[in-house]
Design goal:
Helix content is about 70%, strand content about 0%. It contains four helices and no strands. α1 runs antiparallel to α2.
Length: about 70
């Protein structure tokens, strides 16, 4: 799901990518890459509350990741 979501992002199909990233995160809630991609895609789609929640979840998984600290 994660790789397909990345491909859809490259093709500017953000809504399709969002579905794939949600699937990846649902299957493995500890997958940092899936959670971060989901948050970024929500942000790009102006789903700001969902993006904020996703970034918080990603930060909880990797608190030392300076790319997502706010």
């Amino acid at each position: 799901y994660l790789q397909y979501g990345d491909l859809l992002c490259e093709k500017k199909d953000l809504k399709g990518a969002l579905v794939q990233f949600k699937n990846a995160a649902r299957i493995d809630p500890s997958n940092f890459d899936a959670i971060e991609a989901l948050a970024e895609t929500n942000f790009d789609l102006n789903n700001l509350k969902a993006a904020e929640d996703g970034y918080k979840q990603a930060l909880a998984l990797r608190p030392d990741n300076t790319d997502i600290q706010y």
